[in-house]
Write a structure and sequence with these properties.
The chain is of the alpha+beta class. It has 6 helices and 10 strands, in the order βββββαβαβαααβαββ.
Length: 242
Amino acid sequence: MTANYSVKRAIYLDDPSFVFNASHSIVYRKEGGGQFVEPLHGHDFRASLRVGGPLDDVGFVIDFLVVQDEFRKILAGWNYKILLGLSFLSEDRRNEATKFFEARGGVSSVGLSLLPPALRSDVVGAFTIHCLAPIFLGAKTSDEGTSTKKTAEEISSRFADAARAFSTTDGDFSSTPILVNAVNATTEAIADAILQELVKRFQEAGVVPRNAFDEYSFTLCLEEAPGRRAEATIGKRREDAV
């Protein structure tokens, strides 16, 4: 008998181990000019993944174990990171950052240590003033009766020890943050960057073909808090192979 319906095939991975802890700060633009920088804060991000596509010779859309292992490795790379968006760059530097990302094949995130010196300095300077200063100087400046309005150099010198909290190498916290190719490192932008990293790795390893978007769809759901989730999709879910 010939079936008159189609069957969409997909796998879902939702495991308690798909979690990472990271901090971010969002820059809000005020009406009439100016901006408000949200205090640096962290989340336990929980991720899940859906992959839809054709069956292979074995009968898999994609091997659960392969996806699971690669997904864990990628999420581990985001663990204990500070995630920043392009809003921490001056307008001129944002254009440079966009070109930098394009030159790297359109990747959506990169560690600050890989940025050109000028871009890295711009991000670190803004991050130091807007995020580190309120955390580490707030109480002291109040007690000492001094102003919190200090130059980036003055603040950085006073953070020689505190900065180690943001680093895994030699106390240089600038190597730890990740710059996301989006206005802000929102949960939506983070989900998109992680998903692009995962798909690119699958393509490079031959797990899915280079033209994977023609046959496969990838959807990542990222929860920043109970009941607050963002979703990113690569490929067209309506075109899952039948």
